[in-house]
Amino acid sequence: MISDLTEKMLSGNGQALARLITMVERETSDLAEIMRVVYPHIGSAFLVGVTGPPGGGKSTLVSRLTSIARRKNMQVGILAVDPTSPFSGGAILGDRVRMQQHYLDDGVFIRSMATRGSHGGLPKTASTVAKLMDAAGQDIIMIETVGVGQTEIDIMEAVDTTIVVLVPEAGDTIQTMKAGLMEIADVFVVNKADRPGADYLVAEMESMLHQNQKQSWWKVPVIPAQAVNDIGTEEVFQQIERHREAMESSGNLLAKRAKRRRTELLRSIEYRVTQQVMDQVERDPQLAGYLDKVEKGDLDPFTAAREIITSQTLLDNWLRKARGI
């Protein structure tokens, strides 16, 4: 079944891609096999993250950028991260609601994902889903985050270019968020630029960026736009292309992707070890005893952790069970 699905997906079958994404989201036992098969086929797509405060017009901007990409005959993947429904556990907003104009376009693949308790703006499976879209032949993949502010550092690590969307009426909210957003953005977009205060916000952001330039090889632009009226969106897309060119010529694109792969490995190991340790708690009386002492306050977590990882008996038992012996 997996080989059949992956073969269809690699040939551009959208239904197969959708089914594989569902399996990734559910973290089924086939996840490792799926990624083993598709991994040689990834690396061609360029990943763009779109983030910023809620209500800033991120979805409209993504829709406009998608239209521009399609005019350039690019295959587009859209990963829209939405708040989790308290009832179903799924994404509150659906594909059709978000991107109606592109829904029937075979050159655009749209997927909504729920945050599912993630505090970094992205569900932990988002990067894996983006890899499936990459392997399926998407030229550009846009990841739109839920928009929770300064905690959205995950998007910076998950994509090649990060766009931060601001709006002039955000006022004090923007003031409190600027420090974090300055570190995240490769391109700033001041959306709804027809509203009062937009010119001031553009000038203020440009002044701050001039004083705190991150890299010598890239000057972060601030672009006024009205996404709903399709004004300024062409320039935003041009800046994405320019940033990609700057990253490629400076060697930073390869370096960033190498760092991303390293981070993914470490996180994967951390996740698997954590899951196995939690499973062991129910089976190993010694490990369960440590947990009980910590919960009662009889032993501090740091001492308990040190004793656990230095216990040869516990480590031997854990390794034996991890190997299925």
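Second entry:
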Amino acid sequence: MQYLRELERSQYFSAARLKELQIRKLMDMIAHAYREVPYYTRLFDSLGLKPAQFQDERDLKKLPILTKDQVRLHKNDFLARSLKDGHLSVFKTGGSTGVPVEILKDPHTVEMVNSTGLRVFRWTGWNIGEPVGMIWGNPHILTTAKEKLRDALLGPEVYLDTMSLTDASMSQFVEVWKRARPTLLRGHSHSIYIFASFCNKHAITSVRPTGIISSSMMLLPSERRVIEQAFACKVTDLYGCEEVGLIATECEKHEGMHVDMESNYVELLDHNGNDVKAGEDGAVIITSLLNRSMPLIRYKMGDVASLAGKACTCGRTLPLLNSISGRVADFLVRKDGSVVAGVSLVERTLTRFPGVAQMQIVQEDIDTIVLKVARDPDYSAATEAALIQEFKESVGEHNEIRVEYVVSIPQERSGKFRFAISKVPNPFG
């Protein structure tokens, strides 16, 4: 709660004061990592560097990019010496771009990361102590007295498990909602969309949250419209990950995604490692300013985003991202080496062609693309022909475009959905 109060003040600092706060935290984390973490002690020494040589964010470029594989294979070398024997919680990524990565956090870090989320939840109109409706995979079961007390104080949570999104489970969730009356609806973006479509189909009007937080996957504009129609409430899109927590989020103005710069230092880089200009896509590189147990400096997320290059009219000085363009694995690669965002093709397809209920694009190799399609009654042979032609025009006439029909798009083990999967390396990789 103390950190939440600090965050609610700092979001309105002048841009210069906020930047000064961030750089001070960044320099402190670099010094801590060199002093405490075996991996960084060796790295700095091998490069002939000392923390005193780091004065501002420009000096961060002296350090190489950190990959998920490096963290996964050398996890113990990233643990701070003075904290590794303490009570550390394990956070595991979903592994959507490969093998899952385990990150360890001490209780203080967990508290601070939770506080960054509470600030955003309050942007939606939700207040601490109000119930929350969760549409989530593998819901956490409260076991300890501390967990149950925290749940009661910060806001009781009711769950719809995304691993079982059926008419029966969604009907039951509606009944639970009526009793608990949550003011905030949180969940995986596409899973919220599935529940919203169910509510629209059955004319259910009893689910009326004050705010909606979507996260964990791309929120398509067409899905946003369906969700907002179903629940008569604006959607707040959130970008974060298990490794570093919250990264960027929409506010009540929905003019972009505010970077959580008090907790993370964000770089957007082109394929040469240079900072991109506003409006240009760049690979997302994160340095955590919170996790002292397992510092991650210049960690490559595997995502692509762009800067807005403008201020938000809400008055907060936190910088804006235009959007998250997708994961690296979501970009399809043409034969000339250029790329196209798979999520954009899915969005265009769902809005243009009748009868396509769900679709997932899988690029098997540079020559082959498989479209996995779940059909609605309006689907026809003409739709299939139009789909194939659309993808030939977008990716290349020479490509083999194959359509496979499925009942529904399968979820990841985490309960998330993926719209596009490319097995071909691309410039952002």
